[in-house]
Structures are given as structure tokens and as C-alpha cells.
Amino acid sequence: MRLNRILLEVCVDDAEGLAAAIEGGADRIELCAALAIGGLTPSIGLMQLSAKAPIPIMAMIRPRAGSFIWNEDELQIMEAEIAATRALGLSGVVIGANLPDGRLDQLALQRLAKAADGLDIALHRSIDLTPDAVEAVQIAKHLGINRILSSGGAQKAVSGLDRLAAMQQAARDEIVIMPGSGVNIDTLPAILATLPDITEIHASCSAALPADQTLLHFGFAVPGTTRTAASKVAELRTALERS
Length: 243
Known about the structure:
Elements: E1 7-12, H1 15-24, E2 28-31, H2 44-50, E3 57-60, H3 72-87, E4 92-95, H4 106-115, E5 120-123, H5 133-142, E6 147-150, H6 161-171, E7 176-179, H7 188-194, E8 200-203, E9 206-208, H8 213-218, E10 226-228, H9 230-242
Parallel strand pairs: 1-2, 1-8, 2-3, 3-4, 4-5, 5-6, 6-7
Antiparallel strand pairs: 9-10
């Protein structure tokens, strides 16, 4: 059994998921909208609700789906969203920005990090698009980012363990590397075996919701909708405690 407890961050995109994550024993929340497309900035109302939570809340700052190549208008939108996060008293923000060739956009990230000065700052899976993950880790450290969420450049973290291990070595305890994507009790043993020194892990702990054909027909829902389940959070929390 490990000497240090592994922190469990759970991503949610609605009020029910928020409540379920807290009930199940999450240590921290990544608060989003539209998790089906990787997460967008949550609504002001959901952020306001989450501010009452007894655990830290990290707000995703992403104004649209698609690439992480931002124009000036989008950067101003994100600065406003960061300001709203601060005003509501949330713990931090989750940001990312890339250049057209996939490398991290240092200027954009520097601007967003400056707007978030004093908040906890995490770099999201935009890093999984970068050609050189070790270089990206060094950039993130230089910018004062506290944490990197990554699947190791793969669709699921369990398939990107070699890259995650290289990122963790480059981090040198100066920045947290947090595996995420497809993390559950089935993939956890392989992740922990390859990354024995991780201190944090990210998961959705979600379960499929019944499909409403009428809502699907009108475009008010998307196929394969899921929501965080308290039982799955508790299950993963227990597995981490036993590791």
C-alpha cells in the first residue's frame, strides 16, 4: 500500500454529476459543460452552484469545440471566463492552447496564466496534440502551471503510459502529471504499475444514461450520453485506497 494517498479528480458537466462526485468521495472537481466533446466552459449558474461544494473546483476554460488554436476574440472570452471563475471563488482553471503544428502556444498560455494569477492552474489534454511532450512539460513549468492532465498522447491513458512516464520524469516533482481518459478500476492497475509515483488521477466515473428517442430525434440530446455515478466514484476511490 502506498504511503501517500492518490488524489481523485472527477470531471462533471451538470448539477447531478457534481452532487454524485462529491457523494462518491472525489477530492477535486473539474467542472465543465459538454463533456461529450471534451468539455467546454461551464455556465455561470453551474459555477455558482459548485462554489458551495466542500472540495476544490477547477473550471474548464474552453469557449468552443474543436482545435485549441485561439484567435484574439476567443482569448478575450477566456480571460473574461477566468475573471468570472475568480469572482465566484472557485479554486482554479483548466486551460490549453496550441499552435497550428501542435506545439503549445506559449504566448496564449502566458496570457491566460497571467489572467489566472493566484488561482490553481492546470493544463488540459491539448498537450496530447503536441509532437514533443517533454518540451511541453518544460514550457508548462516555466509558465507556472501547477498540473498537467494527459492521456499520454493516446485516446486512453492506459495506451499512453510510455509517454506519461517520460512526462513524469521531465516533471521532476516540479509539476504534477495527472493521467486521465479511460481511467477506471479495470485500467487502474496497469496505470499504477507503470506510473508508481503518481499523486493524482482524473476520471469521469460515468455511467450511460437511457436514450430518449424523442430528444435524439429533435437534436436535443446526443447518442451515448453519460453522467457521473456516485457508485463509480466510490468504487475508484476504494481501489485507490487499496493500491
